[in-house]
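The freezer alarm interrupted the setup, so I double-checked each line after restarting. Inputs confirmed:
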Amino acid sequence: MNARPRVGLIGCGRIGKIHLRTLLAHPERCEFAGLVDSNEGALRTIAAEYRLETVSTDISTIFDDPTIDAVIIASSTETHAACIEEAARTGTSAFTEKPIALDLESTDRALAAVHWAGTRLQVGFQRRFDSGYAAAHRKIADGELGTIEMIRDAMRDPAPPPPAYLEKSGGLFRDMTIHNFDCVRWLKGHDPVEIFAVGSALTGDEVLAAGDIDTSIVTMRFADGSLASIENSRRSGFGYDVRTEVFGSKGAIHIGDSRQTPVRHLTASGVREDHQYFFLERFKDAYEAEVLSFLQAVVSDTEVEVTGADGRAALRLAILAEESRRLGRPIAAGEVANGIDSELESRMTISA
Amino acid sequence: MNARPRVGLIGCGRIGKIHLRTLLAHPERCEFAGLVDSNEGALRTIAAEYRLETVSTDISTIFDDPTIDAVIIASSTETHAACIEEAARTGTSAFTEKPIALDLESTDRALAAVHWAGTRLQVGFQRRFDSGYAAAHRKIADGELGTIEMIRDAMRDPAPPPPAYLEKSGGLFRDMTIHNFDCVRWLKGHDPVEIFAVGSALTGDEVLAAGDIDTSIVTMRFADGSLASIENSRRSGFGYDVRTEVFGSKGAIHIGDSRQTPVRHLTASGVREDHQYFFLERFKDAYEAEVLSFLQAVVSDTEVEVTGADGRAALRLAILAEESRRLGRPIAAGEVANGIDSELESRMTISA
Amino acid sequence: MNARPRVGLIGCGRIGKIHLRTLLAHPERCEFAGLVDSNEGALRTIAAEYRLETVSTDISTIFDDPTIDAVIIASSTETHAACIEEAARTGTSAFTEKPIALDLESTDRALAAVHWAGTRLQVGFQRRFDSGYAAAHRKIADGELGTIEMIRDAMRDPAPPPPAYLEKSGGLFRDMTIHNFDCVRWLKGHDPVEIFAVGSALTGDEVLAAGDIDTSIVTMRFADGSLASIENSRRSGFGYDVRTEVFGSKGAIHIGDSRQTPVRHLTASGVREDHQYFFLERFKDAYEAEVLSFLQAVVSDTEVEVTGADGRAALRLAILAEESRRLGRPIAAGEVANGIDSELESRMTISA
Amino acid sequence: MNARPRVGLIGCGRIGKIHLRTLLAHPERCEFAGLVDSNEGALRTIAAEYRLETVSTDISTIFDDPTIDAVIIASSTETHAACIEEAARTGTSAFTEKPIALDLESTDRALAAVHWAGTRLQVGFQRRFDSGYAAAHRKIADGELGTIEMIRDAMRDPAPPPPAYLEKSGGLFRDMTIHNFDCVRWLKGHDPVEIFAVGSALTGDEVLAAGDIDTSIVTMRFADGSLASIENSRRSGFGYDVRTEVFGSKGAIHIGDSRQTPVRHLTASGVREDHQYFFLERFKDAYEAEVLSFLQAVVSDTEVEVTGADGRAALRLAILAEESRRLGRPIAAGEVANGIDSELESRMTISA
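Predicted 3D structure, all chains:
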């Protein structure tokens, strides 16, 4: 394989621009091969700003170009699965933003395409590439915590997204909690056997109107008796809140930082610090690291660190949580039918 | 009322000795009137160490002494209710360690005695007198957090208690989580309408043998849709862990400290601090403050800050949690019959 | 020696009351023998509040009482030396607040009296009994920091004292920096060989009028080339600031805490904590510990942990600093004449 | 001016590579025009890694190219002044790493060349572009601290540099403390009127052999009576230590972070965090921000944020400190002759 893969990018929205910067800033790791976005205005603006030569609104300019080795899929959620299937068809390694799709059927079709084509698919759970989460995972793997007995994983956004976003989001569990589901199963090394979810709409009419919730607690039980708890809110009131605590038989690890600027201000009325406002600041380095890791897998022809199976498993937990909330009772992991065929399933262990 | 009430103490175990020191250290607030303990050896040791003159193994020396205004009940759990009833009978103000009893029937009998005698009863939920919890409660009451939307309350002991303790403890929820139940309902200002509890025995055979659990997560839902989560463990592996986070529409409050000694040690292998090991260190000041608050209520003839009704309500939540765990499903707050008569119930709002 | 020494107290001002509480709260460690204060009004108020029976305005009631084993001297600075001499004359162990006196001559007379009487004298440098400072000292002694290369010691009061206090204080270096001088030489284990001091009056006319300064930096050099820096201010603007950093060849230790209440408040405008306001809160436990340590020395007939020689050495550094500031140049430690006779001097090593 | 200036880079050592990445990662802000380094091997390696086309060992390829708008000078210290003069001669905007030179004469010659050519020169004091330092400077400028009364500025490297580096470094004050001198005068808004410096060689024979020191404290006094203290060490033993505290009449600001990875590990033997090891991690974002700020000044034809005059003033303080240490006494700021002519001097106020 080319030691410097040619990489195409699909989508130049908020997260697409972040990946664009990563590709441009690392000429030693890849060659930027072109940008595709269906929004021609946005495309032209980006092309002018970054002096990009190869831009198009036609996705075939990427998939029909045999010199392109890999693609970053950062377009809107409903296009992910089709792009993944197209990448599989053309033998292109693909990195996709989460989720693969909002339902298991589409997800399974995409994963099957990748499976039978024998291509590569990485899902954008960027937390795993944060230095804090990575260090925690390493310590757990090294046995420094003993047996894992409880995980507490919290994630809060500063303010609810606009109604248009809510509508297409797939609901709180598929859109937001999915990061927590991936995080918990990755740190624990297993999927839970039981899920119980409660949730409410407390931030306003938009969420209620969308039939969604904005505040939730999910409790999970694992086969070995260990437990996990996930807290979510669409509106923290103070900024972006991502903290995880892992408790083991030998001690615990707390992951998370809150201060954005390294300053403390001491006054007669107390001491003040600022707080990280959004995920873009908190995970700036992780967004770069996940793409570099993907490029490394492409170059060295190895498995990616976050597989399609991981993406599917997190979605499945989101669906179970939704079901539990709807029914008002705990759900056993086996209660939601698993559409994927058994050969695929056998590959679907947790990437660690 | 005497501006300096005469106070008797029942029990000179671990917590009894703490209360003894408080009484002796505050001659400006009370007059120490005598100590009773059924263990004659312990009694003699304490009497010699502290030069106590009035000690006895006979509880009637306290209740038959008309000059005694108040009593601190720090004897073993199974004696609390009888002591409370005796205090009520003799018109003595009583402060009792938690729980009042391990079942609602005994609790109700004790509360009824206090109610009909018109005496005073304070329950030893010392957290409420910790400067951190008190400040949080004040900020919440002042509306600084807006509407409370989620509470996360964690409590972990460094190591499991001995089997003999477990046997008489009434189980994790009545013995340990009861503090969290009180804390959550006090901070929220309401009782939950639904509880779901999961738990496991992960620390060893002793807990299993006692039919108990040592690790649990309790999820609660309130009538206004707000949520709460309580985490417990009998064995943290690193020390005493008591932290509470309250999330409101306008921001959040984190309560809790972990460092025991104000020292950070910076070395080539990282930075090290110590950690509080036990509740006696964490709540040293709160144990003193709750007794001083009780004495103040006695002197000024006002209601105590933590009532018998609070003690009963926390026990009821513990029983509901136990039932939820047994049944493997959420329990509505009304599902456990409420033996207390309606006149009493009407008095049983949350002390705030 | 009596396992429970009878202790008299001289002075019931701010710090005297703190020591009074310690004596009353520890009947197992001492017997409170009486209080003397020249202010009859204050004396009566305290006597009534704490139900004290033996109080007097006449100091001889303490020194003429042969049953009194020890005395705590917490009266105003100008009386310390005379009380110490009286204690020496009557064979009474003495604990004195700092400083022994404001000049070396009076100090030497008091120390000589103690020396020739063979009695016991402890000076109230309470920092040494703070758990943080004690832990740091232990780690240094254990070699965990390697060779000590630099010490930074900061101390700031929230607001300047009243003019009346300033007038009798002896100036910033003797009144405030004296704690830092003791701290640095105790942690380092040596006296410096050179001192350079700069200072200014920045907080207002009162300090200028008193011919004093309120803001200063003192730099010290030790014979082994290691360095130290002391920062002081009479007005921090935010509370009480006591922090010490010790840097060695193998790492560093930071001592100090700032938060009073274990609460963090997260809002849209940032994160807020409170700050300790005054030394009484910061060193509450240390004030108790130093007196208990003194009582222990009395009971076990051993040397105290902070000797008169330590008190004298800190005063000498304060005088050197003052001289350096006056002359505008560094002062060698030998430049200020040493009035004490050589036999005493030979005993005057640093207590560690 | 071109909205996207063409920028040449001189030097591809440690810091040169950092600036190279910044230039390559920001095609929207500049066009990378070529790299020059006298070391052909290093040059070829870098060219291959980053697919650079225009590289040369001949510096005239940059200065003879009329299409080049700006140059980043990251070569070794002794070449800075000549490159600055060449940039001035050819009308090229220049960003130079600190220091401009190790003596005032060369510095003045370079500044005069820039002055008479009317070109632009920025000096690489990156701290000013750190979000923490920038926020502190802003708060001070906004009067949030009131009058600045004391500044404490500390900087420690984890381990001493190799002997070859020490030899050409110009000594601790010119090489390391120069950052602190810039920082203190920038935060205070004035130069001090008096400096006193002490220093020692404590880390080993190499420093002694180089006639240098590795541990120092510099004390400064300003005309308004305010004070500052700078601590330096070549060997902290625990990592990179950069912390600054500014104390004003209304409160204080602490600048600095120490943790590299957002993880705390809680064990039975205490709580552990890691520590930033080196300046490259601590100031990663600041190195990028200072170059982007320079490019912005080029594009908008405005003054840079850190001028040549700032570079000269910091060097002058370093020379004063050295002289103070040599003489063993404080030095007044006027004591070191100022070779620069008066017209230049009049421009040399502090950039703020």
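Quick read of the result. The longest helix of chain A spans residues 308-327.
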